[in-house]
Amino acid sequence: MSRPLRDLHVLPKTRDSLSFLYVEHCRIEQDAYAIAVVDADRRVPVPCASLSVLLLGPGTTITHAAVRALAESGCLAVWTGEEGVRTYAVGPGETRSARNLQRQARAWADPAAHMRVVRRLYELRFGQTLDPTLTLRQVRGLEGVRVRTAYAEASRATGVAWHGRTYDRRGWSAADPVNRALSCANSALYGIVHAAIVAAGYSPALGFVHTGKMLSFVYDIADLYKAEVTIPAAFMVVAEGEHDIERRTRLLLRDTFHAVRLMARLVPDIEAVLEAADLSEEPEVEQVDEDAATPADLWGPEGEVVEGGRNFAVPTPTGDDQ
Fold this sequence. Notes:
The chain is built from nine helices and ten strands. It starts with 17 loop residues before the first strand and ends in a 16-residue tail after the last strand. The strands form three sheets. The chain has a four-stranded mixed beta sheet with strand order 1-5-7-8. The protein has a four-stranded mixed beta sheet with strand order 4-3-2-6, covered by helices on one side. Helices cover 40% and strands 13% of the residues. It is flat, with a radius of gyration of 22 Å. Helix 2 crosses helix 3, helix 3 runs parallel beside helix 4 and helix 5 (177-199) runs antiparallel to helix 7 (230-239).
């Protein structure tokens, strides 16, 4: 049985967590300090403190107490469409410190640092250092070749025909089996990456390669693993049959995430990506705020940090009213 976590220093690490659980047409209730999934036939306890993401599909209801248990355990709740393919809403992470978010924002806002992060993202995808003379357009061209090659190799290895990445959210069942498997696989991957990003205190919206979407940084990081994880898995599922594709894809992905140690790799990879920004004179920020109710510090125009939580109309004991 999991117990409530009062000290943020002992919150479960992303690397130690289970990956994800998808549920639909059921009720989620609090069960002691964990949750339980209830349907017409059974009640299944779920140790949410060791779970990274709970994907809530159609027909799901969840109690206030269950949401609180998820939040206290650091488990991300994501409300999705049918088969977990589309995200509608997501809960917050448990991180209190803004240090990593501020670091990400500084890298995102500085054009030179932004470009260094973009190149690091592509280097991690390629598994090699890029020629510094390559333009971003040329790098994108190489990435296009890499992705096409990954699809072609998966098609040859499994014997599943590949006619290109096409799907219509409004006509999900009209997509061919491998495209449906890919969409389902990528959706699960996005959920895991999203959970790691918010757990580590970063913003899923401040992307570097991708931009303009609330999940832009999720797409940046998820693209590091698609050729290794979701593309082979989707083709493998279809090669074994076209029945119950979405469920079989999720089951295979859970095993694949464990095999490639995805949970242990995510946060270090995110940190490696942002280290490429090479930010100098990074300001010091408190790492952890154990009490969410503690007032935040105040910003100063010279970079100083002023203690918050007091009335500045009242002089201090020293007579300094700042």
